[in-house]
Design goal:
Blueprint lengths: L7 E10 L2 E11 L4 E5 L6 H8 L7 E6 L2 E2 L5 H6 L2 E4 L11 H5 L14 H14 L15 H14 L4 E5 L7 H16 L3 E5 L6 H4 L2 E6 L2 E7 L5 H9 L17 E10 L4 E9 L2 E7 L5 H9 L6 E6 L2 E2 L5 H6 L2 E4 L3 H5 L6 H6 L3 H4 L7 H14 L16 H14 L4 E5 L7 H16 L3 E5 L3 H7 L2 E6 L2 E7 L5 H9 L23
Parallel strand pairs: 3-8, 3-9, 6-7, 7-8, 13-18, 13-19, 16-17, 17-18
Antiparallel strand pairs: 1-2, 1-4, 4-5, 9-10, 11-12, 11-14, 14-15, 19-20
């Protein structure tokens, strides 16, 4: 162990890919026993910098110093040996192997004749997990444990390598509030033991709770480093986007029109929906709120026809959608922007153009013969109007940032001439600038007399953007709350089953109270 003040120093690092300078003379440092937040919009260079530190990329300029010593010609194994651990947003676990095997996957303990010492492996795995206040059977397959538990397995893996530098990329993106509290407790314990943690997050509200310092990147350049105790969230946002952002949620008022979606007593044993009734009208944004597992995603998938329901009725533009499939919903001008855009919303290996037009080829080219000029003009129009940052429509979707991928999914449904848009976690994992753009698109859809149904786990988002909010718990809708009455406390109370004053319907047939949420 060296005597440097810093565990890590990144000095004037640059990294160039064909057509783009991902890092331009970037500097960064990490002290022992601190949580250093790394902020920036998608495409700012955060992931590239982390991969340079972890040895996955070689820098084209500058140098890295780890524990006071130059660290040249890094590769992932060498970085690991120097004490660098990284937990990517998409975990690197083998689903069919058990917890202990995943923790020791590249250093399995052996005994006589090079046989795996299973007893020792499980014993040591239990000790590491206990140090993280983690109670999970080491014999459980990682595919059978929760996201939070999988994350702790990744942390445990880093501890087996005696990591002193731990990089965490969007660690709270898929966690419940209770799981986030447990993660923060673990991070504080690791910090107290002298570990340095680089923490990437788009959830600005959690930064001051867990971080010590913050460094902001923008367009591959170093903007500045600040002590979190001395800055405001607003000033950090300005550093990130290079301008004053203003009010994040700019909800527009539109008089709702005709009902376009009606759900009546929808039930599904397979996905746990019970007598769900709701509606959606032109010119409004309706929010779906609830805790993780409350049935929000299951409901919109049933509405879209991706999952079947046992009872009840879905009516879209007056048509009963009984027994319908997603293609029927597309025909009826419904678009679903799924929570997992990478796996369900896009074909990542295909181009931006192919993704944009994949759901509307039959409508745009009914004879089956694709006109290359018309295709390019259409796609270029969406790229321009949605401000998709891509060199061209031929760029593979996998190389776009999360925010730009979300815009491509939106372009796909705009191309089908959809009039009902279902957004499932529309801003998860995207930066504040892209969030504001997505909100602007939603407002424009509303002004064009389209209808938007939005799921969000961020209460300020669902309250800020929605005209009405349906709250779900355990597969049922337990309350409908108008925008003017909605508070975070009220939504949480309904979602958790607390005894609160009933919200009131804002339906056209007169306001009437909904029943109290069951305790």
């Amino acid at each position: 162990m060296g005597n440097s003040e810093y565990l890590l120093e990144v000095k004037n690092v640059s990294k160039v890919f064909p057509g783009v300078k991902a890092l331009d003379n970037v500097s960064f440092d990490l002290k022992p026993g601190e949580v250093h937040i790394l902020l920036g919009e998608n495409g700012a260079g955060k992931s590239t910098l982390m991969k340079v530190i972890a040895g996955a990329y070689s820098p084209d300029g500058g140098e890295l110093i780890i524990d006071g010593q130059p660290a040249a010609n890094l590769n992932p194994r060498k970085a690991q040996d120097l004490g660098v651990g990284i937990i990517y947003q998409e975990f690197n676990l083998v689903p069919y192997m058990n917890v202990a095997e995943n923790i020791f996957i590249d250093q399995l303990p052996v005994k006589h004749f090079f046989r795996i010492d299973h007893a020792r492996m499980h014993r040591e795995a239990k000790e590491i997990l206990a140090s993280l206040n983690m109670n999970v059977p080491t014999t459980a397959k990682t595919m059978d444990i929760s996201t939070a538990q999988q994350q702790m397995v990744e942390v445990a893996k880093a501890l087996t390598h005696k990591s002193r530098i731990l990089i965490m990329d969007e660690p709270t993106a898929s966690l419940t509030d209770r799981e986030i509290d447990q993660l923060f407790l673990t991070i504080r314990e690791l910090r107290a033991k002298g570990m340095g943690i680089i923490y990437i997050s788009h959830r600005l509200q959690e930064l001051k709770e867990i971080g010590d310092r913050v460094t902001v990147l923008r367009d591959g350049k170093y903007i500045g480093t600040r002590n979190l105790a001395e800055v405001t969230i607003e000033s950090l946002v300005t550093m990130m986007v290079g301008r004053e952002v203003g009010e994040l949620y700019e909800r527009v008022d539109v008089t709702p029109g005709e009902e376009v979606l009606h759900v009546e007593k929808l039930s599904s044993k397979a996905v746990g929906l019970h007598d769900v009734s709701m509606n959606l009208r032109r010119g409004e944004i309706v929010g779906l709120a609830g805790l993780v597992g409350s049935g929000r995603t299951e409901l919109v998938r049933a509405i879209f026809g991706a999952d079947r329901h046992d009872a009840g009725q879905v009516t879209i533009f007056g048509e009963n959608m009984k027994g319908s499939a997603p293609k029927d919903s597309v025909r009826n001008r419904v678009g679903l922007l799924p929570e997992d855009r990478k796996r369900q919303g896009l074909a990542l290996i295909l181009s931006v153009a192919e993704n944009t037009l994949m759901a509307s080829l039959d409508k745009i080219f009914p004879g089956g013969l694709v006109n290359a000029r018309k295709e390019k003009d259409l796609v270029d129009g969406y790229i321009k109007s949605l401000r998709i940052q891509t060199p061209s429509g031929s760029r593979s979707a996998q190389y776009l940032s999360g925010g730009n991928q979300q815009k491509v999914v939106l372009a796909k449904w705009l191309a089908t001439e959809s009039e009902i848009f279902i957004f499932d976690e529309p801003t998860r994992g995207i930066d504040v600038g892209a969030k504001r753009e997505i909100y602007g698109f939603m407002n424009r859809l509303k002004q064009k007399n389209c209808a938007v149904l939005m799921i969000s786990s961020e209460l300020p988002e669902v309250i800020g953007m929605s005209d009405r909010i349906f709250v779900m718990r355990e597969g049922s809708i337990v309350a409908e709350v108008p925008h003017d009455e909605a508070t975070q406390e009220m939504i949480i109370s309904y979602a958790m089953g607390a005894d609160v004053a009933p919200a009131r319907r804002s339906a056209a047939d007169g306001a009437r109270p909904l029943p109290k949420a069951d305790a």
